[in-house]
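Ticket reopened. Same input as before:
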Amino acid sequence: MPLKHTTLITWLMALLLILPIAVGLIGTLLPAFQYFPPLGEHRMAFTPWQNLFAQGEFYASLKLTLITGIVAPVIALWLALSLLAWGYERAFFKKFEALLSPLLAIPHAAIAIGLLFLLSPSGWLVRLFSPWLTGFDRPPNWISVQDPYGLSLIFALVIKEMPYLLFVMLATMKSIQARESLQVCQSLGYSRYTAWRKVLIPQLYPLIRLPIFIVITFSLTVVDLALVIGPNTPSTLAVTLFRWFNDPDLSMRFMASAGAVFLMLSIALVLGGWEMAHYLLSKITRTERSNGKRHGLTDAVLAVGRILGLVTLLSGFVALLLLPVWSLAKRWRFPDALPSQWTFDNLERAAPLLITLTSNTLIIALSATLIACLVSLLMLETKRLIAKGTNQRNNTRAQHHAFDWLIYVPILLPQIGFLFGLHVLLIYLDLNGALSAIIALHLMYVLPYVYLTLKGPYLAYEEEYLRQANRLNHKPWRNYVLIKLAMLKPAIFTAFAIGFSVSIAQYLPTLIAGEGRYSTLTTEAVTQAASGDRKQVGSMALLQAAFPILVFWLALTLPPRWTKWRLAMKMTLKRKTKCSA
Amino acid sequence: MKKSFVAVSIAATLAFVSLPTVADTLDDSATWQETLNQAKGQTVYFNAWGGADNINDYIQWAADRIKDDYNVTLRHVKLTDTADAVNRVLAEKAAGKNTNGSIDLIWINGENFRAMKDNNLLFGPFSQSLPNYMAYVDENARQSLTQDFGTPVDGMESPWGMAQVIFMHDTATLRNPPKSMTELLTYANTNPGRITYPEPPQFLGSTFLKQALYELTPHRKALSQPVDTVDFEKITAPLWAYLDQLHPVAWRRGQTFPSSSEEMMRLLDDREIDVALSFDISAASVQIDKGNLPDTVRSYVFQGGTIGNTHFLAIPYNTGVSAGAQVVANFMLSPEAQIKKQTPTVWGDLSVLSYAKLSNADQAKFDALPRGIATLSIEELGKTLPEPHSSWMGALEKAWRARYAQ
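Engineering reply: fixed in the latest deploy. New output:
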């Protein structure tokens, strides 16, 4: 991109990023110190913190949050790496990759409900084996979901996070020349898993560090998933805060704000600890990696991870398949494995809503993602140019560009605490309830995912192609689009698909910015999920999933065929013009 | 034409009572006409819990009728939690948005009403001057019409419907259901894992605690006092002793609880549990009709009566369309709307109108309402226990969570 005024652009973009974040933060920080004029509190105090630390529920919630929020990403990463090491570049794995997108695209609340129905004591798994094997005429009194240890929550998180990590890893494989390394390693006699562990994973990790951090933050702060499948006596800290924020006793808000600040600090600590652990681990294993052995005991870890990964994926799919079955069920009682009566009534009842919901959802998701892609490209190009300019003088400024840490802030902050503060800003601007406000808030959450997904491939791009093109034909804008962007198609399409599905899944931002005036498929599905009617939820989830799945499918299908199809179309057009001429 | 007829007939009825009232009423009807004029063309954003299809459909029906009769557009903003709406009004006040707020009408009662009233977030008083309120509501019929969970209503909200706790059981699984808290515990002891209740602070869960407290405590009278004026520990001790016994033999050993009445009905359908509860007297019939419960399910109430309350419509202080909102609240109080609402296949929510004040034709319509196979009649519903003072809800929820949720 032939950009000028890079410093000015940096400042402007940074300001645009900082402003809503700062307002949201202040709107959370001040109440955490008892300052909130609308409730008549004009003096700072530490009472919210004292109240917070006096709550037994706070400690129990925090413990649960830390367990689920750390264990889930560790397992998700382990399983994703195992699956990648097992299947990468193998023929069957291509089909497998295409299957990932549904799991990625489905809003997590719907997955959680599907899992609930799969795993609960009256769930499909038990039904399948009852009563002929288990002897159960009625569901057993087990605690297989919403268990107090959060195991089912961890499972749901892994189902959601593992495909995301795998997807991101696959998108970055080109930039580490995995195929070549693998061939060299295997010709030297290294077993497949050992080659991955010793050579590829250490190269891969720095490129996917950012997505991993996102996954950790998501695990620590998710509300809707934890509401559905997480334990509630106590619940995770994010859910507890959510409840406090919504308590009719408005003074609870102070304690909730303090809790939100504490949750933000915990995220920082966990991320720091994670990096420390990674540093130590790579130190300890350094000698082992270069000892020349072609096999290792840790191969087994990846082999086990592969099997667990497959089981996880399978349960995710079964959970998803159960949702459409529910949407067509009239009577489906335990222990029937399939509905005894079928009907289209459930879908018919939902039909009048669908047109409004679908158009709202698509307008919001498409605009937010499109803007996010353009803004990401602008930001990355600015960053690249500044990096290039300062390369000779000093390296530090280039490496620590403002965008790299600013972009994290929206996703590192718990939505519940942050969005209330931001809502006040929207009201000042008289934008509350406006469609543009919803798109802007979605943009805030879509942009980081798009930027981070795009960053690695974009910066790893070999600029020489573009330079060569400009030497041949000096049209910088045209070449930027037709050469550079065209070559980055896979990454851009992937980023778009991820951004789109992030936007579709947003619940709190849509509700808070739109004030309920704009319902999307997701807000409607979560409202229905609260009512516990699996038929309605099944119908909603079916629709909600359709669009992201379509976009993901396109992101995988289009880039490799793009040029072929484009040329074919050009030929046809040429032939036509010739004929008509 | 129709409107002026109503006004004249109200005035005529009241003329028999006393002359000054006639003057007032004529004056009132003139102001009401102004309100109607102002309301024309206004759009009212009605924030109401949107978790039940039948209720959403009823609101849509009302919206169509109001559009036809008064040219007021009613938009239903579906909430998952009424507290969201309270928070939104608060946020608007924080931002200084004191006019043209985003919410024009809220479906509300209890704690949320108290929070809004205490923080001056409400428009009013308005309800006592609504024509249908003056014509059909008898404030002495039920305490809950003027005392919303112990908070004086003072005309700041207009009654919409009445609810009472009912229990449901599947006659194919359980023939003689437990009809008191003590019987419930006995049943749970002989059938472990089949009894539960929604998790407080979900309002039905909190109501279960209040119901249990009413039956178990020897100090019933103290429940109508604000909680900080009585000895909470002493009064609630029997409740906690009871729950300590119940939880080990409850569904999933009392380690998790269902999140709502709807989830309880799902569990009842799956036969994970044997008794479900609801605040909606026609819930069982409606769910049987939808295929979510078997047709062997029946409703019942406890022998000593169950807790009941009134739910209301309130107008936030910063609405830009207070006239339109009042027109909606008034329509919701009309015999037509209340009869439709009490129809079991529509919603089945109890009317707030006084039967004695209705015209013969309307009385006949109420008499003719069909009941679903699993809905109890007014007589069968028996005695209603009043809600404790609204401060009890928070205190009970807090104590429950401190004991069982950490």
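The mean pLDDT of chain B is 87. Chain B has two domains: 2-160+310-370, 166-308+384-404. Please confirm and we'll close it.
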